[in-house]
Amino acid sequence: MAELMSGTRTALTGSLQMPPRVVALGGGHGLYATLTALRHLTRDLTAVVTVADNGGSSGRLRDDYGTIPPGDLRMALAALCDDSEKGQAWRELLQHRFARSRRHGEQEPDLAQLAGELEGHALGNLLILTAWNRLGGPVEGLSALGKLIGARGRVLPMSEHPLGIEATVRGNDPQDPLAREVVVGQKEVARSQGYVEKVRLTPETAAAEPQAVQEVLAADFVVLGPGSWYTSVMPHLLLPELRDAIVQTSARRVLTMNIDSTGENQGRSPAEQVAAVLENAPGFVPNVVLVHQQQVADPEDRHALEALVRESDGEVHVTDLVSRTRPGVHDVLRLATAYQDLLHLG
Asked: Can you give the CATH number for the domain in which 322 is found?
């Protein structure tokens, strides 16, 4: 798999034997799957990661230190660790999460307080925060950590400013299914039980990370998704400078759908999920929509999706993407094979 993409950029650049420049955008487990697949296909890979998380370890560090949340960035770094013994060791260290100390609560107040502060934190989040403080900022810190762990790609935040998410949600109160309310916070939107109609970033005019914008504009391929649709995938299309770069780039834009229609996409057909992206991000059109075959097993669902995507001269790529051992999760080798096919499309 490691050499699947050897020579791919030859078709794009004539006789130059160069790997394709690929930018993957997202956050959390969805971006983790994408990066794990793409690092087998190209050496020129950049992750542009959402910075709107306000829950868990990331939310605590964000509040305590006034910084962008490190959790999704940590996941991206872990995904880019290779499969060598060293790479696997770094991945485990980055993802290690402190449990409740056995001494927590005993008659040792200082130790109990420290244990309480560490509880729930991921070691990688603390390493990232340390690197930022020591090396001058998020981009410099992530670059240094990437080199230290031998990451097969680069990780950038979508912005160096912590962002907020708010959404207009209908039917969040089961007693009043027609009522609309504004839900504030990434964690709160993700846990909402209603139908998300509109999503926004705050502040709406926040600056995008300049290097992320440059990478998107220079890319051969831009991959968006899978992941939490409103809180991990769409934020990149809601930040004005980054959205403009995604719209203007000459790269082939691939929108990867989730395995199923649960969570933030509960009750939406695949066509409705893509339509929600287009409605929330005017100007964005995907060249290819990658979808798991069971998502469009109903001929009507498949026809509706293909008709919508064709309106913008795009195409739908249907294949088997699900893990056999973990239903509901992308199989990264199947995903890598699908991206391999897409990156060869004319």
From this structure: 3.40.50.10680
Question: Whose CA is closest to 154, among 211, 99, 105?
Answer: 211
pLDDT of residue 179: 87
Which among 196, 157, 169, 144 has a CA at the least distance from the CA of 76? 157
DSSP annotation of 152: S
Asked if residue 1 has pLDDT above 80, the reply is: no
Q: What number of other Cβ atoms are within 10 A of residue 136's Cβ?
A: 11
- Measured in whole angstroms, the distance separating CA 38 from the mean position of its chain's CA atoms is 13
104-147 pLDDT, tens digit per residue, is 554 444 444 444 578 889 999 999 999 999 988 999 999 999 99
Asked whether residue 290 carries a pLDDT value surpassing 50, the answer given is yes
Rounded Cα distance, 124 and 126, in Å: 5
286 pLDDT above the threshold of 90: yes
As given in the structure block, the two tokens for residue 137 are 């900022």
Is the distance from CB of 81 to CB of 151 less than 8 angstroms? yes
Distance, CA of 27 to CA of 52 (rounded, Å)? 10
CA distances from 147 to 64, 125, 188 (A): 27, 17, 35
Asked if the structure places residue 188 within a domain, the reply is: no
The domain containing residue 303 runs over which residues? 22-96+119-159+207-344
Mean pLDDT of the chain: 88
Phi-psi region of 66 (alpha: psi -120 to 50; beta: other; left: phi over 0): left
Phi, psi of 156 (to 5 degrees): -130, 145
Which whole-number Å values give the CA distances from 268 to 30, 109, 190, 200, in the listed order? 19, 51, 15, 20
Under 8 Å between Cβ of 328 and 334: no
Q: Which of 277, 326, 272, 280 is nearest to 301 (CA)?
A: 272
The domain total for the chain is: 1
Mean pLDDT of 24-50: 96
